[in-house]
Amino acid sequence: MGLKTGAIAVGLLGTIAVGGTVAARRQAIAQAQEVLADPLPTTAQPLGTWQRLEADMRGPSLGLDWLPAWLDQGADQQTLARWQEREGAIAAELAGATALAAAETEAFAAAVTVQNPPHPLAVWQRSQQQWQGAIAQLQRVPPQTQAAVIAQAKLPDYQRNEAAIAQRVRFAQTAVTWNNRGVQAFDRGNYREARRHFDQALASNPALATAYFGRGLLLATQNSHRTAIADYGRAIQFDPQFADGFYHRGRSYSALGSLNAAIDDYNRTLTLQSDHARAYLARGIEHHRQGNAIAAVTDLQRAATLFQQQGHGSGQATALMALKEVDPTGALASSQAAPSQPFITTGTDPYNEYEDGQDRDRLRIRPRFSTRATSSDSSSGGSSRRRSRGRRR
C-alpha cells in the first residue's frame, strides 16, 4: 500500500471511529434525558426507593463517563450538568436513608434485648451499646437530606432511651460490687454480713444469678437447704447453663433425703460439664445409697480419674475411699475397668479439705477467661463458669 492510500485508509477509520463515538454519545444523552424527565421525590422515601433510583442512573452514566469531553456541545452540556446534580442528590439521599434504616434496626434490637426484665448486667450493657450504635447512625445522616428531618426527630427519643438503659447498667454494676463484698464476707466466715451484701446485690439487680448462687451456698452452709434450693433455682432460671447451680442444688436435695431429685440435678450438671468430677462423686454416692453398686462404682471410678487428671489429690482420695466402701473386695471395680492411677495421699478428712479448698472466688463476678471483674456477671462467663468448682455446704 502506498503512502497516499494508507493515509486515506487511516483517515476513513478515524472518521468512522469519531462517527461511532458521536452516535454513542447521542444515545447516552438521550437515555439521560429520559431519566431526568422523572423528577426526584421531594418527601422522605424508604431506602429501597433511593436504591432503585441509584440503579436507574447506572446505564446512562456508563455511556456518559467513557466518552471524551471534547464531544460535549451546546445542550449536551446542560444535560450533563443536570445529570451530575441528580447523581449527587441521589448519593446524599441514599447515604441518609441507609444510615436512618441502620439506626432504626439497631434501636429495634436494643428494645427487644431488654424485653421482660430483670436481666443480668451483660444484657443491659448489650442494649446500651445498641442504643449508642443507633444514635451514632442517626448522627451520620447527612444534613439537608430528607432523612435528616426524621433523624433529628428520633434523636431525642433515642438519647432518652440510652440514658434509661445506662441507669440500669449502673444498678447492675452496683449489684456486682455488693456481690463481691458478700463473697469477701463469706470467705471471712462473717455470714450475717455476707447475707446482707447478697441481699443488697439482688435488690440492685434481681437477675444476678451469681448472687442467688452465693446466697444459696450461704444458706446451705447453715443447713437451710429448702431455702437454698429456691435460690439455686433462681440462679439456674437466669443462667440455664450454670452447671454448679445444678450441682449444689443436688447437694441440698441429697441433704434433705431427696435422692432422685439429687441424681437428676447431677445428671444435668454432667450434661453441661462432662468433666465435673464432683458431680460424678456425688452421683456415685447417691447410687450407693440406693443400692445400685455397679452404677456407683462406675461413677466413683470416673470421679477418681477426673480428679487425678485435674490435679486434685484430695478429691481423688475421697473418690477412692468411697469406692473402697462400695466395693471392699474390688470385685466390681475389676469388672468395670478400675482406675490405674496411684492413690494420692492427703491430710485427714480429705473430702472436707477438698471441698472447702475449691473456688473461694467462685462467687466473684468475672468476664470470660478472667479471674475477677466488677463489670460483668455470671451470664457472660459461660466457659469459665462451666469449669468452676463449688463450695462445700
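That was protein one. Protein two is written in the same sequence-then-structure order:
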Amino acid sequence: MESEEGAVWWWIACTTTTTLPTPGTPTGETGTPQRPPDIVYVTIDTTRRDHLAPWGDPALTPNVARLAEGALRYDQAQAGASWTKPSMATTLASQDAWEHGVWDWPDAIDPNTPTLFSVLHGAGWRLEAVVGHNALAAYAAPYAASFDVYDTSSWEGIGYPGDLVTSETLVDQALGYLDALEADPGAPFLLWVHLFDPHDTYFDHDDVVDLGTTKADRYAEEVAYTDQQLGRLLDRVLDRPDTLIVLHADHGEELGDHGRYGHAFSLYQELLGVPLLIRGPGVEPGVVTAPVGLIDLAPTMLALVGQTPPDSFRGTSLLPSPAARPLFAETRRFADLRSVRDGDLQLVWNVATASGRLFDLATDPAQKLDASERLPDDRLRMQTLLSEVYPEVSAY
C-alpha cells in the first residue's frame, strides 16, 4: 500500500510553436513509408516538480536538466489524482477518474478500455517495459497485456518496492532491452521505464550528496539518486536519432507543506503539480506556462508518431498549443476529495464535510488562504463547474 502522505474555459497562451507530423503513415520524399519515431517513456513515482531542474535546484537533478535543455517544458502540468493508480489511468486512458473508475487500491480500468499502449500495440509497435511499482503490476493494472515484455523483476518476488532500492536495476534492465530492440530494427518501439525510489521509504544514499537527516532531506536524496541513475539511460538515448523522449511524474509528495508527509490524503499543488518534458522529432523546444493536464498526454504522444487517438480519449493533443480546459483531480483512498483548476484558481471540495476551499494560486501559491470570501463570484462559478461532473458536490 502506498503511503499517505462544461462550462468555463480559459484561453491558453503558449510561448512555443511546434510542428506536428501529419497523422497517419508518414512518407519520405520517394513516397516510401517512413518509420515513425521510437519512444522512450520515463515516469518517475512520487516526484515533486519543484525538486527537478529546471524548476528546482539544477545541482539536485543535473540529468533531468540535460533533458530539459532541448525539450518542450510544461511549467504547470497537473496530474489527475494524488496517487499512482488513478493518476496513471487518467494519463494512459485519457479519461478523468469519474469515467475510468479507478478510485481505490483494488480498482483497475476495464481491460477493453483503449490506452496509449494498446493503441500502439494494435498499430504494430513493439512495447517493452520495466516497472518498479506494484500498483502497475500485471495483477493490479491491465497495461501488461499490450506489451511484448513487461518486467517487474526488480521487486516482484523480492519484496514491497518501498522497502527496496530499484532504480539502478531498472535502468540496467532498460538498457538491456534497448540493446535487444536496436539489434533487431524493424517496427518502431516504445520502451517504458517507471522509476520508483522517490516513494517512501526515503533512504540515505552514500553515492549522492548528503543533504541532511530530516524526511524532506532524505526525500531530496532519493530524487537525486533517481536522477543519477536516470542519467545512464539519458546518456544512451538523448542523442539517439528519431527518438521521442517523454518524462513526467505520476504525482508529487507532501513534505510537511500542510502538516502531512506522503500522498493520497489531499489535492494540494505539491501533489498535483508534476514535471512534464517532451523532446524529440516534431517538438520545438520551449516553455508552456499555462496549466495543462496529463489527460492530454496520450493523444499528444500519438499525434507525434502519426497515430489517431481512439474516440474514448477525452483529452486532446497539447501541440501545437494546448486546448483550453478545466483540470479535474480527485482522491478517494485516504480522503474523499474533488478538485477543479481553472487558470490560477483551484477549488478543493471535501465530500465528507460538504465544504470547499478556493485557492488563488497567483497570490497564494502555497495554498494557505481560502479565497472564497474575497472572490465569491469565482467561488460559485468553480463550485458549479465541479458539480457538473461530480453529483456529490453541491452546486451552491
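Residues 38-324 form a domain with the Alkaline Phosphatase, subunit A fold (CATH 3.40.720.10). Keep this in mind for the problem set.
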